[in-house]
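Hi F.,

I've been meaning to write this up properly since the lab meeting, where we talked about keeping a consistent format for the predictions we share between groups. The idea is simple: the sequence comes first, exactly as it goes in, then the structure tokens exactly as they come out, then a line or two of notes. No screenshots and no reformatting. I'm using this chain as the first example so we have something concrete to point to.
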Amino acid sequence: MKLLSKLTIVSALIVSQGLILQTASAQANDFPNKSLNYIIPFPPGGPTDVAGRVLADAIGKELKQTVVVENKSGASGSIGLNQLIRSKPDGYTMASLASPSLTAPFMLSQPPYNLEKDVKSVGTAYITPLVIVVNPKLNPDITDMKSLAQVAKSSKDGINYTSAAIGSTANLAMELIKKDMGVEMLHIPFRGSAPAVTAVLAGDVAVMYSDLVAVLAQIKAGNLRPIAVNTDERLEELPEVPTLKEQDIQASKAMSWGGLVVPKDTPDATVKILSDALASVVNDPDTQTRLKAVGAYPYYTNSQTMQDTIARDSAIWSGVIEENNLRQN
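Output, unedited:
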């Protein structure tokens, strides 16, 4: 009897586990069967918001479901990402992940989350090209990275640079570039790209490292001279401008990018459905045109590759922040 009882219990467990697996499989096959929520952890109107809305619209059409966009801004994206982390891990809530949210845990004295443990990657969607510019009237001798280094080393009063904010990808990447070139340059931060561009045009700051979209109009007008871009290949908008890599700047590996994440316990099968949908829309010519219009260059990688990128970039940026004492109290 005891043997039969044990066999009965084992059989019941096998049946139970089978039912659980069948239920999980059925849920994955049925996903999505209702509207999805898309959290953008930044204010309306910015590049991450506009790119996120392009993706939300395209993913909704791909999955044949409504995607409801919610802006939940604040604390470098921490507020919105924490809302995602607390959401039900069923695939119906996802969020944009952009560079400020990647660096926030290292910039803040009390890290709001750990991206490697608290979220699961869906995939990267785009990169944001960065370009180094100078005022050609005030800095006629700076035409490339070599001449920038020469001017920085020979200048009696030193040379300064600006970016959109302390802790921005451009700020952190320029710190790497300074180290590569062996020069000193003082960072003059502003609250956003617009006032930083104004400062360079006025001659208050010599150099700016910026998102392409923020400076392209002034470049086209001849008011700013681009001397390098941080992409692997030259940009179609600036075909004459060499990449950092072409100019032997190793810090070119530091990139600004955006992607999608979901709560950490979201089933892998559900993540794959979302990732496949993202791949489809990122490779769609119409979506590519819409993304490029806001300075986001389509660039898809799958879930695991994005997770590996988070780990790699976290190591890079945390080191830069620590070395340059950029952590905020």
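Notes:
The chain has twelve helices and eleven strands.
The radius of gyration is 23 Å.

If this format works for you, I'll send the rest the same way.

G.
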